[in-house]
Amino acid sequence: MQVLQSANFSYLDPSRGWDGGVNAFYRLIYRQLITKAPNDAKDPNAMVPDLAESLGKVSDDGLIWTYKLKAGIKFDTGAPITSKDVKFGISRSWDPEIGIGSPYLKNLIDAPKGYQGPYRSGELPTIETPDDRTIVFHLKAPFPEFDAALSQPSGTPFPVGTGAGDSFIKDVVASGPYDVEKFVPGSLIQLKRNPHWDAKGDTARKAYPDAWRFTIGVEGATIDERLIAGQGADINAISGSVQTSTIARLQTPQLKVRTVKAPSTCLSYLGLNTTKKPLNDLKVRQAINYAVDKSSVLNATGGRQFATISNSLLPPTVSGHVDYDPYPSANNAGDAAKARQLLTEAGHPNGFTMTLDVRANETEQRKGEAIQQALKRAGIKVALNVIDASTYYETIGTPSQQHDAALTGWCPDWASSASTFLPPLFDGRHITPKGNQNLAQLDDDAVNAEIDRIGAMTDLAAANRAWGELDKKIMALAPFVPLNVENRIYLPGTNVAGVIAPSGDVDYGIIGLKDPAKG
């Protein structure tokens, strides 16, 4: 199987990496206690046992979760995967240098104050391993979706004592159906079969191909041209969503039959750093919300065929979504006059200058330019700071390197749940020196308290309604400018099968070749 992509993966280490592209890749080489059901399942958003025999057994007070590992599971070294390895892998999330990926487990598990992971602080006492196949988690507070939290990359087991420092930057210990055979950063990743993976014990992955080849650093337009031409090994190739400029060319019968259009659960947004002057002033942030021309950003994204304008934080596909518009303008084209009025009230009648971080990607830079032009009408001068795609999320997630604003996006981490949307983006108690997801650096006591209250609710329908109300309260503080929800359009090679994306992302675990002898 061939995969063509422009940007390098953030990290092979699942305690460090945590974005849509690398998460899909992780599914090939890593397993967790629990995982998302495959994309071809009856309910592709369901959580299913992976290394565990079943979903977790929770105590009456909701604070203790217990799991039993399947028998016979092994690493690619042939060593058995034990409960101690699961505990060790998860505890790496507390390391201040390594644990910059998914924050859910370290936010939920009741670790001792000051705990800094296994390399610095030793074992984590709040994860118990009474025998090699039993693991028990003690939580800070009830969290009904803890099964789903364990499905995150940070839930990956590793042999006790491995992975210190940069050990897993170029090589890893695999628990999934494939292992890394060759890795040339920014150029190539080749995967080979893990001989110790047992298909009978893995219901989430089919692992059809004998090998995978990820070719990295190819321009997006070149990828699209190769997939359209469909010659040689490219008949066995897949890539991420096509370029917006390519969409019009996919209307021929030959290409239309190959095209897969997937609705996205991901919000594209402009994050405003509330710690930077003058963005620490609510009226200034509200002015920016009024000023942005979302229709021009939509055009830069690829138009209505490719995206839908968003005015709230939670996309329509995410539980708790409420349809409202707190900063309206005619045709979503921005209201420069209202923005100027608010800036004048804030003491900036002549506007101000700010820096916007943008990923080095053709579409993202066009979106940045559309925002730049819209804010100029309100008197705000925007300088674009273009950052390499492979380091973009790490850069903007480091507060010391973060500028006034960042253009980025967010996807729910499981089941289109608002509990994986609002808390990581707005809980001020989890602003970290590295791997920070709260780009607004919003730390509001009322928001934090409401996140705790809703997160502990066992009535998920009531919780969803509460998340929708919290969406409104947060937008009243104007820490973000919601922009749009982008669809994803894939063009698999003619010999590729299994490209199903019910919620936006493809599932490498079920993809294969129609005829393995071709290409």
Automatic annotation (TrEMBL):
What's the protein called, per UniProt?
ABC transporter substrate-binding protein
Q: Which CDD domains match?
A: PBP2_clavulanate_OppA2
Q: InterPro entries from the xrefs?
A: Peptide/Ni-bd, SBP_5, SBP_5_dom
**Pfam families per the UniProt record, alphabetical:** SBP_bac_5
Pinpoint the Solute-binding protein family domain residues: 47-429
Q: Which domain of life is it from?
A: Bacteria
Q: Where are the transmembrane segments?
A: none
